Structure formats: structure tokens, C-alpha cells
Amino acid sequence: MADTMIRVKRLNKVYGTAIKTHVLFDIDLEIERNSFTAMIGPSGSGKSTLLNCLGLIDPPTSGEIVIEGHSFSDINVNKLASFRNENIGFVFQFHHLLPEFTVFENILMPHWIKSGRPGPALIEEANRLIDRVGLTDIKDKYVTQISGGQQQRVSIARALINRPKVIFADEPTGNLDRETGTKVLDLLREINRENNTTLVMVTHDREVAIRSDRIIELVDGRICRSIDVRTSGKESAVEMLENRSCVLTDSD
């Protein structure tokens, strides 16, 4: 039986009070440890909202989220922040870098927050990541002095610096050209395999999704299908994705 890293039970997300917008409906989902899961779906399907709930950024309206055996139905804000910083890395389409710091300093920021001044081993790891994402020549520049594509690669290295157990990525290649995006995806896939990191990625790019182990497709806030790419093979998975009819099934 597969080892589960994340388990979600009957998760709902509703925004608003006077006028309510129901975004996620009774989501049941298990994500295998060390796997690469891609979440796809049309705009407004709820995939980014689900990612933010799974990443403990946006609390669900109801339902349960269990990560690494820890339930987050009821937990105080400080413990939530501590768990996120120690176990989870985030890569967003908008990178949220700190403009007053250099590339190198931004990448080390999660460690500074968690443990204070980094030692030689962490500095070596930061330099290794900087080299792998192609930023060695600009590591001492402020992030305001580099391109958008370079800033995104900084955010990816930053997400990896604490060697998190789970990385949540929301369109991490969305602002990059095809060649750079492929290199970034290669890096994330390497980290997933070499460090046994669980990777959960939202993407609109089906060519990116097909490189995952499993594809979850959302429609109107519900999971309409799950494709195990490892079992079906890439060719069959592509055929299933090309069939755009995705049938919603009622929850029990």
C-alpha cells in the first residue's frame, strides 16, 4: 500500500458571508509520499484554491487536512506557521521576493526565519541551488535588478533551501520561456526524486502535467478524474487528457 503524505476528507471552501461563493465541494484526496502530482483544470475550477488549502495558507471552510500524520482541523496560528516553515516549500507564479535583499539573501531567508544565521553547510547548499537554477553570475544582485524569469528561479531555490518534505507550486513555469521553464521543471523533478520530496503543482500546461506521476483534474470545484501516469503510461495519459469530457461523480 502506498504511503500517504497528504489526506483530505470532505474539504469545502466558501468565500464571503452575505454573498457566498462556494469554490470547493467535498474534496476527498490522498497524495502519495515522494510523488509528483499535477493539478489541472480550467480557469475558476478551484485548483489554486485547493493548493492554498493543502499548503495551509488558506483555511478550508469545512473538512479535514492531514499532512505527515498531523491534522490541521484545529491548530493555533503559531504552530501552523512553524509547521509550514519546517516542512513545506512554496513556489508561486508571483514570486513574493523581498526587494531590499540580494538573490543570495532571499534564497536563505526561510533558514534565517527558522534557525537564524546559516552555517557553512547551508551556505554551500544555497550556492549549489543557485548554480543549478542558473543564477551564479547574479547572486549578489538585488532582486529588483534582475528579470522576471530570474526572479522566479530565485523563488524556486528559496523553496528548496530547507529541504522541505512537500513543495507546493502554483504555475511555477508560467512566467518563463519554454527553455527556461523546462530547466526549472527538470530541477523540481530532480529534487522530487533525489530528496524524496512530495511535489504538488498547479499548471495550465498539459505538457508539464504529463511529466508528473499523477494528474488530478478539477472542474467547477470538484475532482472529475485522476490519471495515474505511471500505470497508464504517458501515451494513454495524453489520450485521456485530449478527451476534454470530464464527468463529475457525486460524493457519497
Characterise the protein shown here:
With 252 residues, the protein is an alpha/beta fold. It contains 9 helices and 10 strands. It has helices at residues 47-54, 77-87, 103-115, 120-132, 148-160, 178-194, 206-209, 229-232, 234-242; strands spanning 4-15, 21-32, 36-40, 62-67, 70-71, 88-91, 166-170, 198-202, 214-219, 222-228. The chain starts with a strand and ends in a 10-residue tail after the last helix.
Rg result: 18 Å
What structural class results from the helix and strand content? alpha/beta
Largest sheet: 6 strands, mixed
Which percent range fits the helix content?
A: 25-40%
Q: Order of strands side by side in the largest beta sheet?
A: 6-7-8-3-9-10
Number of strands: 10
Series of secondary-structure elements, N-terminal to C-terminal: EEEHEEHEHHHEHEHEEHH
User: What is the rounded distance between the termini?
Assistant: 23 Å
Number of helices: 9
Outline type: globular
Low-pLDDT sequence parts: none
How are the SSEs ordered, and which strands pair?
Elements: E1 4-15, E2 21-32, E3 36-40, H1 47-54, E4 62-67, E5 70-71, H2 77-87, E6 88-91, H3 103-115, H4 120-132, H5 148-160, E7 166-170, H6 178-194, E8 198-202, H7 206-209, E9 214-219, E10 222-228, H8 229-232, H9 234-242
Parallel strand pairs: 3-8, 3-9, 6-7, 7-8
Antiparallel strand pairs: 1-2, 1-4, 4-5, 9-10
Helix pairs in contact: 3-5, 5-6
